[in-house]
Specification:
245 residues; alpha/beta; five-stranded parallel β-sheet; four-stranded antiparallel β-sheet; 9 helices; 12 strands; 46% helix; elongated
Length: 245
């Protein structure tokens, strides 16, 4: 059995196919959510946030794909970038083009060979993980999702103002580099002079308090006479090695 923590939503009307997929995907180590129709699929998407959707809702398949990709209506709480694989008995060239044009990541013709489907699922999940990594910034204990603007420190959420968030993202781009006050003032406030450096210092101070809380970890470091950096180099390297392992 493969080792995975990915969650797959199986949206399939046919009872036998749905049970077959649920059983085999679970045996391969996936967490499986089951939806017999479009309404149940949308309900699960809004609360469970699967890593991949495997869908064949017959006449409602394309409308479900549209709902997920648009992020409108009942699908508003779902991640519109969740990868989608469509199962179809009518997977001719035109149908495949329609599915892909509407945001599907792959189309598999029914009846399918399960080993091939499993390989396609793994391939789509790998591509999705690569895309996800490009939207995540990490610096020491800090994780920033630049699409959702979610910030977590030591896996706890941090609520930041717009300018505090902009300052954090700029520093996190090169977390061990010292950004000068001039660079930060230009990049965040669009200011060319040093007359407003107190604004920078006050935002940096509030950001430090929000990130560190009661922790002794040093985040948002003031390099006197120069500017700011986010984390010490040794801390960033240690966290990076730990994440690779």
């Amino acid at each position: 059995m493969s080792q995975t923590t990915s969650t797959i939503l199986v949206a399939e009307e046919h009872d036998g196919t749905r049970a077959f997929l649920a059983s085999n995907l679970a045996a391969d180590g996936y967490r499986v959510l089951i939806a017999p129709d479009r309404a149940k699929a949308l309900a699960l998407l809004s609360t469970s946030h699967p890593d991949l959707i495997l869908v064949d809702i017959n006449g409602e398949t394309l409308s479900l794909v549209d709902s997920i990709r648009s992020g409108e209506g009942p699908a508003g709480r779902a991640d519109p970038d969740t990868p989608l694989i469509v199962l179809s008995r009518d997977a001719d060239r035109l149908q495949r083009i329609r599915v892909l044009d509407r945001g599907g990541d792959d189309v598999v013709r029914k009846p399918f060979a399960y080993p091939e489907l499993r390989a396609r699922i793994a391939a789509v999940l790998r591509r999705s993980e690569l895309r996800r990594r490009t939207r995540i910034l990490r610096a020491g204990p800090i994780m920033i999702d630049v699409l959702s603007r979610e910030v977590r420190v030591f896996d706890r959420p941090a609520e930041l103002s717009a300018k505090e968030y902009d300052l954090l993202v700029m520093l996190a781009g090169e977390p061990t580099r010292v950004f000068t006050r001039a660079e930060l003032m230009r990049g965040i406030w669009g200011l060319q002079t040093f007359g407003h450096t107190r604004t920078l210092d006050s935002h940096a101070s509030r950001l430090r308090r929000k990130l560190c809380g009661d922790s002794d970890e040093k985040l948002v470091i003031n390099v006197w006479g120069v500017g700011y950096r986010l984390v010490p180099g040794e801390l960033h390297r240690t966290r990076a090695v730990a994440s690779v392992r």
